[in-house]
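REVIEWER CHECKLIST
Item 1: Sequence provided? yes
Item 2: Single chain? yes
Item 3: Sequence as submitted:
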Amino acid sequence: MGHALCICSRSAITIDNKKYYFIQKLDEGGFSYVDLVEGSHDGRFYALKRILCHDREARQEAQTEVEMHQLFSHPNILGLTGHSFMERAGKCEAWLLLPYISKGSLWSVLEKLRDKGSSVSESRILNILHGVCEGLKAIHDAGYAHRDLKPTNVLLDENDRPYLMDLGSMNKASMEVRGSREAMRVQDWAAQRCTISYRAPELFSVESHCIIDERTDIWSLGCVLYCMMMLEGPYDLIFQKGDSVALAVQNPVSIPQPCSYSQGLQTLLSSTMVSNPQERPRISWVLHQIQNLQGSDGTAVDTNRV
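Item 4: Structure as written out by the authors:
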């Protein structure tokens, strides 16, 4: 009886004719909040992402995020359980109901290891990276790019299975830029939607006539790999000090030495973080190299990217 009274006292929302009770806040950003909720019909926990849509453009962006989730049913991409758009007093909120992954983000796991003075084993790095790449491959094969891959946008379950999340920055994999005005539009969009310390070099100063493709994600993937190896992103300190990340990404990534990880893993990292996007590999090549490293002692990586 006491439990029932407790349930009734909690605030509740309804999505797709199912009731969910608020448990606690999990996170908040500039225009979104994530709450932990419990389904009254199944007793399971879910993450409710509430996006504040301050104008028509923001509402369309939220709708696009819903559509991106609905495109995929993949073990390494966070699924969408339900959604709703709520209109209140002239304001709109998009509600995205997502599975709750209790272990949290890859970044939170890495932070705890760093605080303990520990590190991530190479086999664990390869296992997580393999799952991230499988999710990315599904996105790229569908003709899209994630555009904001970073450790906080990767969730890990109790078995270390990674889930790509926050699909709000996703768009078509290939973007043809025609003229300086369009280049500036893409550059401004990237500044708003692609986290600076994980942003590919070609998005900092967009050329007037170019094609930007899904290999922006390969650069970000390299940054994620670096973060798993060093427990901080390659450009985190540069950004925190107020120095120019845009300038730093024009140079080859520097791997601190001595490095406890295999030469094969270091070579894979260097291969993904190539400033010239045309020299960067695609996701199938990266997956192949990971599989090679998982099946070997990690001392060599084939440099043929065909």
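Item 5: Key structural point noted by reviewer: Residues 1-8, 298-306 have pLDDT under 50 and may be disordered.
Item 6: Recommendation: ____
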